[in-house]
Amino acid sequence: MPELDSGATAWILTSAALVLLMTPGLALFYGGMTRSKSVLNMMMMSFGAIGLVSLLWVFYGYSIAFGEDIGGITGDLSAAGLRGMLESGTEGGIPDLLFAGFQLMFAVITVALISGAIADRAKFGPWLIFAGLWATLVYFPVAHWVWGGGWIFEMGVLDFAGGTAVHINAGAAALALALVLGKRVGWPKDKFKPHNLPMVLLGAGLLWFGWFGFNAGSAGAANGTAAISLINTQVATAAAVLGWIVVEWLRDGKPTTLGAASGAVAGLVGITPACAYLEPLGAIALGLIAGAVCAAAVGLKYKLKYDDSLDVVAVHMVGGIIGSLLIGFLAVEVIAGEGNAGLLYGGGIGLLGKQALGVVAVMVYSFVVAYVIGFAIEKTIGFRASAEAEVEGIDNAEHAESAYEFSSTGGGFASIVGKPTSAAPTASTEPAEPAAPATEKVAG
What family does this belong to (predicted)? Predict the structure, then answer.
């Protein structure tokens, strides 16, 4: 086995664990934004993605994404089953098997991101079928295009950690599924407010924490590139929090916790493709733009009449587009590579043109294939839950569970307060109506 770099190996081991943590973080983030009667179904979609995509990655996903190139479109199947990787090391000094494990975590969360667009109305079984087919036909090949030596990579498009391969890819698929499944019962007239904002903030915090493995880990070693990626990730996200809440403060009169959490995710998305190519001041500018534009983009679904439940399109597709295109303006040649200076740093329009082509190619391919897969599932076995299940609670219909048990005949709370009495309730014992959340906007 080639000599390994223990420092690089330790960092990528840590980064892989950080990126895996992002998917349970996403489950909390998305789960808190749904209604209480559909939170388990929402979270199960993320955990289902962890189980399914992990196995597909070993069977053939890694080989399609990073195998020997075939025509710039896909990798061969020479590494199917991760065969031949037990005694090999990479040029970066880490085991090939570790690189495969690190990239697996990207595949998992990319699939899970899509689920936010169809919250409250999707059956779990058909979701797993969609997830497996989409990963096979879209994510694995697109990862090869962008990182595995495929045509986008060879064209010189810059995507350090997943603006196209992860966020635009997932956002376009989310839009396709939202159109296939249609609007939730009562949308947009009814207010679909988050049921647990502390859960949303916890999920956003875990995403922010894990994202340092996502971006800085993509350097492949504990080096200067990882350092610039880490600081850019932090300051861009911080700026995006402020950018988002300023927009909603001016528009709605109040800054909200949901806006702060959503702004953080928008900033993380925006800086992902650009984190290793910008100076910190450029990263701050990118974050401010991403936060403000994504906050404004939330309103698109009301104007265009598509029901993207948790605003995956506004945050991930729009945020990914912003980050990918701003490379063409803000890239610094000394870190982005010779000939890769952005327009504002003395470069020409060539880099911006390449970035735009990469954005459009991934967006169109993912949308079309996702729409076809989703439409086929809906017309055969049915993708959308029944209206009755949606209204009564999809958690019970799909999983025979509820997230919150308030029965007075069981549970720890009931045992403390004792059995209910037969006395008639008085005005003083009537439960108060819960206060309505300050905002109905959701993003994810």
Answer: Belongs to the ammonia transporter channel (TC 1.A.11.2) family.
